[in-house]
Design brief:
heterodimer; A: about 400 residues; alpha/beta; 12-stranded mixed β-sheet; 9-stranded mixed β-sheet; 9 helices; about 40% strand; globular; B: about 260 residues; Rossmann fold; 6-stranded mixed β-sheet; 4-stranded antiparallel β-sheet; 8 helices; 12 strands
């Protein structure tokens, strides 16, 4: 697969980026130069595929549609934002991916095509959530980049949906980048529902200023292979970040998720809550790490990961970690994976509830404690519904 | 519909390769209240669990029919939908699932998919039934049996029975661990439901619940079989004299083992 990388030349990049400003072309070339030096950084348990290392076709940018956009907010296609010369784009695009960059991420920065840019202006507080849909079509490699910037004191909900037409056999090598200014607050919700033959490589990065707050609300149910590495840098003091991650894999789906909280500012708090359900022969590799740097006095970082196994053939590897370089902090983790309690199923069936409905109820109950922490009712209901539909007979 | 009828013939049940119920015959019809009494370890609860289809119990022989249908050939949920109900001694806890949601799902399982019970009507009925069992209204939104006291769990079983309206209800030690007030409450809840359309089988160690639900038939079970049957006077006699006289009269000298 390394061969496909070598074949990607600066000329191809230039063709790619024909109508882009020179600063961006320079960045793309620099990223391409790093590709061959960088490590893969992929878990051993996850199969290495060729598709994400190919070059995307610019014409194959996924269609990105935004819902209504109120005053003080920009939500546009990334190409448009670049052409308009948005300063925030030049300032932030790709910046959060330079730390701990992997070969795939450098390749993404060299060749991303399409995506979206969202900016919520200083002090703008949105009442209604912003909506963004990334739609795949069949048989291509997509490389969208989502850049979200909330300026100081801005508050917003953003709901992103990744989906595609039935039968799409695409690969997605995208990225999400979120920058929160001081005292900004964002609930970022993402529904990953791409078709069952798609592969997704979807790293997410966020940087939080002083007293900023971020909720990552993630629901992964689609894809044959979904690899997502979510890193949050709590830079400003008092910043708070929370991951509320849910995933449901079936058949032979393979998930590889990594959640990392990096505490740099003092009195920063983070919490990773993940609830996964596996049925069929699905497999989940789940890593989490709370990193507390030397500067982060008074930080607190917690993790709770639980996986419910609906079949004997499903498999979960949960690997929680803590990396603490400061005194006076609080941190800890709890992780578990276990089968459905047969006595619960018996009890439900003894009331006339069918085996599949019993499992649906157990899945709903298993999710309840995660869902109750999700601020938007519509998002709670949607995740609950998606999970109910996925329970197989 | 005709009166309910549960007919058990020659039922043999094993647990982990050991035969516990060794040929049990019993018929329960609508309008009847049968009590099965007996010392620990005689197979009373094993019989009840096997009738419901508990996965740890193996039926080794015999038949059981409900309204002429072979229930032993059915899955657990089919037995329930055929009209069998078991109030369990140790009901499971289901975190994250409210009692109301659980019961509504159970009711809808008995109805056509396109004809679910109207939500408002369901809540009205549930509220009324909770009131009659002196159950606090907050019960509906609490998670199934999670954090319930022993008495609350038993009352919840009876509430489920009231909502689901079975044809044959087996109450497995619904009185054990309860104080006398709680026993009265549970017994009056069951008594309110008695009719020609319901047959009840009460399994108990103690005679005292029978002071509040009048049995039509009383059976004594020992060593996996019914060894004596009679009317309410048999329960009184057991209360007064214990089981030892019966054991001697029947020539049963094996030690009675504790129930697992």
């Amino acid at each position: 697969m390394a061969g496909t990388l070598v074949e990607l030349t600066p000329e191809q990049i230039a063709a790619f980026a024909a109508d882009e400003p020179s600063w961006l072309f320079g960045r793309r070339l620099a990223a391409l130069g790093r590709v061959s030096e960088l490590p893969l950084r992929q878990s051993k348990q996850t199969p290495l595929e060729t598709a994400p290392f190919l070059a995307p076709d610019l014409a194959q940018a996924p269609s990105v549609t935004a819902g209504d956009v109120p005053a003080g907010v920009e939500l546009v296609d990334l190409r448009t934002a670049i052409q308009e010369g948005q300063l925030a784009v030049q300032q932030h695009l790709g910046r959060l991916f330079t730390e701990g960059e992997s070969r795939l991420q450098a390749l993404h920065l060299a060749t991303f095509a399409g995506g979206a840019f969202c900016r919520v202006g200083r002090g703008v507080e949105l009442k209604e959530p912003l909506q963004l849909t990334v739609e795949l079509e069949s048989g291509a490699l997509y490389a969208p980049h989502l850049l979200v910037v909330l300026e100081e004191g801005a508050r917003a909900d953003l709901i992103v949906e990744l989906r595609g037409g039935a039968g799409a056999e695409a690969a997605v090598r995208g990225a999400v980048e979120i920058v929160l200014g001081d005292n900004a607050a964002l609930n970022y919700t993402e529904f990953q529902r791409v078709p069952g033959r798609t592969q997704t490589y979807w790293p997410r990065r966020a940087e939080l200023g002083r007293d900023a707050k971020l909720h990552w609300i993630l629901a992964d149910v689609g894809a044959r292979l979904a690899v997502a590495d979510t890193r949050t840098y709590l830079r400003g003091s008092g910043a708070e970040a929370r991951v509320l991650a849910s995933f449901f894999g079936g058949r032979r789906q393979h998930f590889d998720f990594n959640h990392v909280m990096v505490h740099e500012g003092q009195h920063t708090t983070s919490d990773i809550e993940a609830r996964g359900v596996l049925q069929g022969r699905a497999r989940a590799v789940y890593n989490a790490n709370s990193v507390i740097r030397k500067s982060a006095k008074g930080a607190s970082g917690w993790q709770h990961e639980h996986t419910l196994m609906l079949s004997d053939e499903a498999r979960a590897d949960l690997i929680p970690e803590l990396e603490i370089s400061e005194w006076e902090v609080s941190a800890g983790h709890a992780a578990s994976a276990g089968p459905v309690d047969p006595m619960q199923v018996y009890y439900m069936e003894s009331r006339g509830i069918s085996p599949v409905e019993s499992r649906r109820l157990i899945v709903a109950g298993f999710l309840a404690s995660l869902l109750q922490d999700i601020p938007l009712a519509s998002v709670r209901e949607r995740i609950a519904d998606i999970f109910q539909e996925k329970v197989e007979l | 519909m005709a009166r309910p009828e549960l007919i058990i013939q020659g039922l043999r049940v094993g647990v982990e390769g050991r035969e516990i119920v060794k040929g049990l015959d019993l018929t329960v019809r609508g309008g009847e209240v049968h009590a099965i009494m007996g010392p620990n370890g005689t197979g009373k609860s094993t019989m009840a669990s096997a009738l419901m289809g508990h996965p740890s119990y193996e039926v080794l022989g015999g038949t059981a029919t409900l309204d002429g249908q072979d229930i032993l050939a059915m899955s657990v949920d089919e037995r329930a939908r055929a009209g069998l109900f078991l109030a369990m001694q140790y009901p499971a806890e289901i975190s994250g699932v409210s009692n109301a949601n659980f019961l509504r799902t159970a009711l809808n399982a008995r109805r056509a998919e396109n004809d679910p019970v109207p939500v408002m009507q369901f809540h009205r009925d549930l509220k009324a039934k909770m009131e009659s069992l002196q159950i606090d209204q907050s019960f509906a939104e609490r998670y199934v049996n999670e954090g319930f006291s022993g008495g609350e769990k038993k009352r919840n079983e009876i509430l489920q029975m009231a909502v689901l309206r079975p044809r044959i209800a087996v109450l497995d030690e619904i009185d054990s661990g309860l104080d006398i007030d709680a026993v009265k409450l549970v017994a009056s809840g069951v008594s309110q439901m008695l009719s020609e359309d319901l047959g009840v089988l009460i399994i108990t160690h103690y005679q005292r619940i029978l002071n509040y639900i009048n049995p039509t038939n009383v059976h004594v079970m020992m060593q996996g079989r019914i060894v004596r049957s009679g009317g309410p006077e048999l329960a009184m006699e057991l209360e007064a004299r214990g089981y030892e006289w019966l054991r001697q009269e029947l020539g049963i000298d094996e030690p009675i083992t504790e129930e697992a």
